[in-house]
Amino acid sequence: MRNILVTGGAGYIGSFMVKSLLERGDSVVVFDNLQRGHRNAVDRRAEFVEGDILHEKDIQDIFKKHQFDAVLHFAGLISVEESSKKPEMYYENNVVGSQKLFSAALEIGNVKNFIFSSTAAVYGNPTKVPIPEDHPKNPTSPYGKSKLETEKNLQDLRERNNEVNYAILRYFNACGAAINGEIGESHDPETHIIPLAIRAAMQNKEFKLYGTDYDTKDGTCIRDYIHVLDLVEAHILALDKIMGDGGGYCYNVGTGEGFTNREVVEMVRRVSDKDIQIVEAERRAGDSSELVADVTKIKKELGFSPQYSDLSTIVASAWKWHNPK
Questions:
Q1: Active site includes 214?
Q2: Do 237 and 298 have their domain in common?
Q3: Most buried by CB count within 10 Å: which residue of 23, 144, 188, 253?
């Protein structure tokens, strides 16, 4: 049994991560400020501590009280659009907060193993698709820049101390819900296309389609969608890797297949059997035209093989979460 700290464990991906770790027999402490997470999303078998990575006393106290084998860091702000409006908030939380967390983990908790929740937004507008991990990093949003800065901080920590082990996981589009509809995606504000399209279908309201003039087959953005259950499995594989072999690693987490926004909305229409009233709008600041992962590395090194990430399964699971029987 391993003792694991999950920051942001009351959030969407974090709550799935906590459940998976517990089912493997690990002991889990969740650390979350609940500003965007949900207390009821945290598995009751985990210990919950309310606190903020920006508050040094909060994070120092948790490392004084517990001895952890690894930290899985999900406590970050995630909206491209919001980051363009509030860049200082994203820098403070995602960069400064992460620095404080890593420092306390190393200096007080003597923790050497870290999994960091990063993003494909670090690549910016790619010059090569599918995008490999060594692609140039030119993020176009403060969100992407904040994640890239934290990646660099982790890499610097290992350069100074080769006992520090890390895996950086660059998510493409995380989505979906538990297959049984038990837990799912609930953000405030919600910015992700699948839950927004589902809400529009449920409430018979207009769905705003941002950007219809991209250089793609139907003029809308192309994204690579990874089911949250597969995403969590990637974290498990990465954690086993760093705790078994040590080292520092970066992996894309996606499927290698892209869908346009119109194709996603059409899948929601098919699954829900409801019409969706589309209203075309201007592009959102910071959005890239096409983000599709090259997943060669994670498949080769970790044996990663998504099981739930076909678009119909993703949308059907999300629909079941939003429409419980």
A1: no
A2: no
A3: 253
